[in-house]
Target: Alkane 1-monooxygenase
Amino acid sequence: MPAFAAATLAPLPLIATGATLGGPLLWAGLAYMAALSILLDQLLPLVEADAPEDAEFPAADTLLILLALLGLALPPVAILGATNPALSLPEKAALLFATGLWLGQIGHPTAHELIHRATRGKTRLGVALYAWLLIGHHASSHRLIHHRHVATPLDPASAPRGRGFWRYLPRAAIGGFTEGLRAETALRDRHAKGLHPYTTYALISATALALALVLAGPTGLALWLLLAAHAQLQIHLSDYVQHYGLTRATGPDGRPEPVNARHSWNTAHWFSSALLLNAPRHSDHHAHPTRPYPALRLPDDAPRLPWPLPLAAAIALVPPLWRRLMRPHLARLAQPQRNETQG
Model:
């Protein structure tokens, strides 16, 4: 837990102080989010050890709640800093980019963990953070569509082999919204109760945009939209990288095989795993969605990326490079399956 807390909280004082004063602290915050994880992952050994089975982490959810509350406060702080005349234009750009990276790399895993909690208050906090970033529907599409249909054509968040990220993005964004809406509406038809979740998402997002207008007028609104777009881009990049090219076989009954460890890419890099709340241990999350993030494991048969997740996401922004680098890794995964079929 100290590693998770230190990695996720450390950049916030740098970003927040930089929003007021600019200067070296602000650039240090940007360097932390943009480069430090990649550098430390190359210098430190891979972490293979798993937490003991049935280990408990009482502080895990406390850190999630703290990070979520800080994530709600960070966009207003960034907007005030970006409209602060004391900051230069490069400093304002650095502030916005560092903030967007924190929201996408730490805020997103935080909200993701919270929406999988059984406690209603924690789930609602995760929903609020997603809706604050104008992507509240992700709470629906992730739980109701992605976990059910992952690694099949029915999941907009699963990219087939050969599809570049920029071709994948429109379907992931639009399909996630529409499929989540369809699933939530079907649930309401069977168990109508309270506001439609999409109405809740819209109200929270409208509150966020109204706050942006109060803080800095049309400029504040534009900046909030920019921060949200940056965070959403990273959310879709994460889904793209963690399931690219992996497919579930179709059985004789026409149904896909059960989800297993081979349907998610994982990484074992120490620092980025701490920074991303163990999101790179993705196979175990799909097998045990409610398992606390410090207890997630690395299955022996789970496919692994050779790069830390943030670096893999950066590579995916250049589709020809991504396809070329991923080709041998997909080929190695396919070979055992061909052997099993022949046997």
